[in-house]
TrEMBL record:
<dbReference type="InterPro" id="IPR029058">
    <property type="entry name" value="AB_hydrolase_fold"/>
</dbReference>
<feature type="signal peptide">
    <location>
        <begin position="1"/>
        <end position="38"/>
    </location>
</feature>
<keyword id="KW-0012">Acyltransferase</keyword>
<dbReference type="InterPro" id="IPR050583">
    <property type="entry name" value="Mycobacterial_A85_antigen"/>
</dbReference>
<keyword id="KW-0808">Transferase</keyword>
<dbReference type="Pfam" id="PF00756">
    <property type="entry name" value="Esterase"/>
</dbReference>
<dbReference type="InterPro" id="IPR000801">
    <property type="entry name" value="Esterase-like"/>
</dbReference>
<keyword id="KW-0732">Signal</keyword>
<protein>
    <recommendedName>
        <fullName>Acyl-CoA:diacylglycerol acyltransferase</fullName>
        <ecNumber>2.3.1.122</ecNumber>
        <ecNumber>2.3.1.20</ecNumber>
    </recommendedName>
</protein>
<dbReference type="GO" id="GO:0050348">
    <property type="term" value="F:trehalose O-mycolyltransferase activity"/>
</dbReference>
<comment type="similarity">
    <text>Belongs to the mycobacterial A85 antigen family.</text>
</comment>
<dbReference type="InterPro" id="IPR006311">
    <property type="entry name" value="TAT_signal"/>
</dbReference>
<dbReference type="GO" id="GO:0004144">
    <property type="term" value="F:diacylglycerol O-acyltransferase activity"/>
</dbReference>
Length: 329
């Protein structure tokens, strides 16, 4: 692995040294250079399990103080990664919420085939069953700081251990459902990190309809991840946190980015969850699109038949757009 993965020092030096470190919030400067033979650990992460025998899909599990159990990540490599010697852009692809949703969800959704032939590294991390890509207001099950894990730890670790462009034009973020919300949120809260932001059936407006998305985030996280704790606080919300995470309140942060949105127009009338979920997604995305239009920010949007589901044709189209927008391998 060490022959294929340059050390953190060499990667950041090649990407511009101090500039690259500053773009990552100074994480490298605070962590320091790795000891000899320890290039794969760092940034608060320690590898506890790994699998690299598949030529395309590599797997790692980490110990981290940010999350009270060992979260994992799948990394899908381009077919020519091992032989080309080239540097690649990276797409962070975030999974949806619910029981059984985790870092393997996108593999089950066919990402290997959807990304075949595309010169981009696809990183698919754990985000909790209902972690909402947030550091929660409260937890009764130990630390569940998913935003810290992804942004402060995993992102610089990927840049240090794979041949990536450690810069704004080298990264995109996308996701489905809860992951689509996470992508929009990360794109706005960390505007210098991602040049492409995509939401597949992810909510873009969390305060509309009396804060239905915020309530759902609190209820689902309390039930499945936080043992009664909540992402945004209950019964009183942490209003500053809600506003910080709400995409429609940060429209100007998407200026200069590629923005890609998908929502379904015909939820299953028999499935109440699908109906409520995608109806809310569609309304929120329309509100968001109107604000983008008003700000003169270009974006690509699709309203597709059906409900709350991953649409392979839209994912493939999105991947083509990601590759076109990001720095070329």
């Amino acid at each position: 692995m060490r022959d294929q993965h340059p050390t953190r020092r060499r990667v950041l030096k090649a990407a511009g040294g101090v500039t690259a470190a500053a773009a990552l919030g100074g994480a490298w400067l605070m962590t320091g250079a790795p000891s000899a033979g320890a290039a794969e650990d760092g940034f608060g992460l320690h590898i506890v399990d790994r699998k690299e025998d598949d030529p395309r899909m590599w797997y790692y599990r980490f110990a981290t103080d940010a999350v009270g159990w060992d979260p994992a990540v799948n990394i899908l490599l381009p077919e020519d990664y091992h032989d080309s010697g080239r540097t690649y852009p990276v797409l962070y692809l975030l999974h949806g919420g619910g029981t059984g949703q985790d870092f393997m969800s996108w593999d089950g959704a066919g990402i290997r085939d959807l990304a075949a032939g595309k010169p981009v590294i696809v990183v698919m991390p754990d985000g909790g069953h209902t972690g909402w890509y947030s550091d929660p207001v409260s937890s009764n099950s130990g630390p569940r700081n998913w935003e810290t894990f992804h942004i402060t730890q995993l992102l610089p670790w990927i840049d240090a251990n794979f041949r990536t462009y450690a810069e704004f034009d080298g990264r995109g973020v996308a996701g489905f459902s809860m992951g689509g919300y996470g992508a929009l949120k990360y794109g706005a809260k960390h505007p210098d990190l991602f040049a492409s932001v995509s939401s597949h059936s992810g909510p873009a407006s969390v305060r509309r309809d009396a804060g239905l998305v915020v309530h759902w985030a609190n209820v689902s996280s309390a039930a499945l991840d936080l043992a009664g704790g909540t992402v945004y606080g209950a019964p009183a919300w942490d209003e500053a946190k809600v506003s910080a995470d709400n995409p429609v309140e940060h429209v100007d942060s998407y200026r200069g980015k590629r923005v890609f949105l998908v929502a379904g127009t015909s939820p299953d009338p028999v499935n109440w969850f699908d109906t409520i979920n995608e109806t809310q997604v569609l309304a929120g995305q329309r509100e968001f699109r109107g604000l983008l239009d008003g700000a003169g920010i270009p974006h690509e949007w699709h309203e597709e038949p059906g409900g709350h589901t991953i649409r392979g044709d839209m994912v493939r189209r999105d991947l083509d757009g990601v590759v076109e927008r990001l720095r070329k391998a």
